[in-house]
Amino acid sequence: MNRTYYLGVDGGQSSTNAMIGDESGRVVGFGRGGPCNHVKASEGRAKFTGAILGCLADAFKQASLDPGTIRFASACLGFSGGPADKEAILRDLLRADNMHVTHDAAIALSGATAGDPGIIVIAGTGSIAFGRNARGETARAGGWGYVFGDEGGGFDLTRQALRAVLRHEEGWGPATILRPILLKETGASDANDLLHRFYTTDFPRPRIAAFSKLVDIAANAGDPVAVQLLKEGAGELAAYAQAVRHRLFLDPDPISVAYIGGVFRSRILLQRFRAILEGDGQICVVAPRYGPAAGALIEAYRMAGLTCALSQVPELEK
Description:
alpha/beta, 12 helices
């Protein structure tokens, strides 16, 4: 008997994940490849192609499927940085009756809510909120990049921490243990040295964003400056969610707001985020049900007019 297969792909700044499902919603194959978000960069197209083919090869192997014989009924692929420079390449790499290429927030929402209406707030290196209501209408807030936006994201938290250290070192801000923590972790001699290091290619944005965990460490040690930075970040992320809410949902509607990204590992930030949003009793802040690759697969089923409850989803996508 010929089986019908569907494909979901999550392409991000750190990895690319592919998930193959059958017509019942059962995940039959999962694969992982390298990052694929910079197509226009030097050697970007080759890296993008390698990441896609690599994760697909792993997924086909796990599913015991021959890549040369499979044409997907539908495929949904979501990417950090959006779809504009990727769709043409993908049509040369994949065989699918229907293909939809979108942004990473859309598939993150579908995974987090298992396809139901709601809002997702993503806070990793950067930040964005994205929502969809029962009518299929969508809205976003944030996601404007590290220069003009990304409030509450990892890069922004590290930037605010360094600004606090600079203010203290120059004598116009309160003392904070963020100074010795940041200097120790980076090997910098003082805040000015650290500032100049952050401007070099040795410290790309994801590396700088990763230092945001030090803000949480300082806050848990009782540093009031770090605590305030986390609470301000939570407020900005909550403001993103509220902006999307007011554009998509009527006030009496109960709304689920899911969260995803490394910034939310901070207990202090997550508690503040939850307290702000759940204050009026209309919003319920929830952990994501599935990851973005599962969300892309759910969207692939939706494209085919199917509503499937996923089964055998890999643990890292739950």
